[in-house]
């Protein structure tokens, strides 16, 4: 079964064809990051307009590169939540029109479920159940993945997402948007013990997280140095920040895996590209004899192959939508009902 996946939840427009949920036949991505960089973050209106400009060309290209023509597409899967509402609506409306024109089923997909599914594309042997840490620009959650379409959040951030925190710390350090990779590069030359930064704990919620105190501590450190005219050890601050984020994410995920009795740990989302976090997970899983799955870098960020993959499993579980399908800026991963 060939599914055309469509993704437009933030600043990447993407289209991909995936066969039987696991084989990527094409994976087209148009990133708008450069267009938003001058504003220091994504401008929703600009994102929506750019999606409109490129989406149909990208979908045509994805079908062509898959070696198919439109009659070879058996279903359309589309990200319908969560994300920027205007951006999501472009993908949802395009997918509705395409499904109607081709006479094929339309399958709505939760974006974070898609991030988790990126791992199925990279690792054919991976099947639920497992414990997953989903870390992206807009979401940070520890997810109990019982089945392909049966999952629940057991821990999440009370404020900023991990990626959002990376982007804000990077911005105050004078780095371009999106800040995760530049901050990682800056941290390479730094000592991660240079600055003592907060590691918040939420009383009574051992798997929950908070990043706003960490973000504020980085902002204050930079501003204090500026006000006093002191030279700031930027690399040391970046390395200390990365360490604090990793020390928030990794032990909680490992605790949850142990408590729930899982021997498989999966990491998903844009922040899963982070070298420090990947290395700390590798160490922790080696120590505790757990299997670790982290997608290759090209499948960590937003893409449509992961949407087509998750769309396949949603399709198998009977999920369908019609022309009444709407997009939603927020939606829980465990209540992905469209
Ligand atoms: O998954 P994604 O592409 O989009 C969302 O679904 O949100 O994640 C984007 C986020 C951004 O905040 C970006 O700074 C972060 O992932 N990111 C990283 C790295 N590469 C991307 N964060 C830390 N280290 C990286 N190497």
Give a nutshell description of this structure.
By secondary structure, the chain is α/β, with parallel strands linked by helices. The chain has helices at 33-37, 44-65, 85-102, 111-122, 162-172, 180-187, 212-228, 234-260, 275-287, 297-300, 305-316, and strands at residues 2-7, 12-19, 23-31, 75-81, 106-110, 130-135, 140-147, 150-156, 264-268, 291-293.
Overview of this protein structure:
The chain is an alpha/beta fold and 338 residues long. The strands form 2 sheets. The protein has a 5-stranded mixed beta sheet, sandwiched between helices. Strands 8-7-6-9-10 form a 5-stranded mixed beta sheet, with helices on both faces. The model has no long low-confidence stretch (mean pLDDT 97). The protein has helices at 33-37, 44-65, 85-102, 111-122, 162-172, 180-187, 212-228, 234-260, 275-287, 297-300, 305-316, and strands at 2-7, 12-19, 23-31, 75-81, 106-110, 130-135, 140-147, 150-156, 264-268, 291-293. It folds into 2 domains: 2-115 and 299-335, Nucleotidyltransferase, domain 5; 128-298, ATPase, nucleotide binding domain (Nucleotidyltransferase, domain 5, 2-Layer Sandwich), CATH 3.30.420.40. It contains 11 helices and 10 strands. The protein is globular, with a radius of gyration of 20 Å.
Give a quick set of tags describing it.
single chain, 338 residues, alpha/beta, Nucleotidyltransferase, domain 5, 2 domains, five-stranded mixed sheet, 11 helices, 10 strands, 44% helix, 19% strand, globular, binds 5'-O-[(R)-(carboxyoxy)(hydroxy)phosphoryl]adenosine
